[in-house]
Write a structure and sequence with these properties.
Metal Transport, Frataxin, Chain A, six-stranded antiparallel β-sheet, globular, alpha+beta, 2 helices
Length: 116
């Protein structure tokens, strides 16, 4: 388990890195309806007809939650042994989930998402 302070540090860092990555990606791509918003710990990513992602911190559970237009809702816990946000249900990481889905949606097979 991680402490509350560790949770906030790790989750804030992850969210900030994700926002920066997605904003840079949006600037680099010329996709009209690619939109990133981040307010009060909630990240919203609109990817045109594919739908909208919502990623948010859940401090009471020490989790990051994602709602994906592709795979639905998932909850991720930070696992020190993996140094990553891991889904209890699937064993997959937050970064890998986003990477695989965004590669398909955006048609970018070499897209690399820099979060764990």
């Amino acid at each position: 388990a991680i402490t509350t302070d560790e949770y906030h540090k790790l989750s804030d860092q992850t969210m900030d890195e994700l926002v920066t990555f997605l904003e840079d990606l949006g600037d680099a791509m010329e996709m009209e309806d690619f939109d990133v918003e981040y307010t009060q710990g909630v990240l919203t990513l609109s990817v045109g007809e594919a739908g909208t992602y919502v990623v948010n911190k859940q401090p009471p559970n020490q989790q990051i939650w994602i709602s994906s237009p592709v795979s639905g809702p998932e909850r991720f816990d930070f696992r020190k042994d993996h140094d990553a946000w891991v889904c209890r249900k699937t064993g997959g990481t937050l970064g890998r989930l986003l990477e695989q889905e965004l590669r398909d949606i955006l048609g970018m097979g070499n897209l690399s998402v820099p979060i764990k």
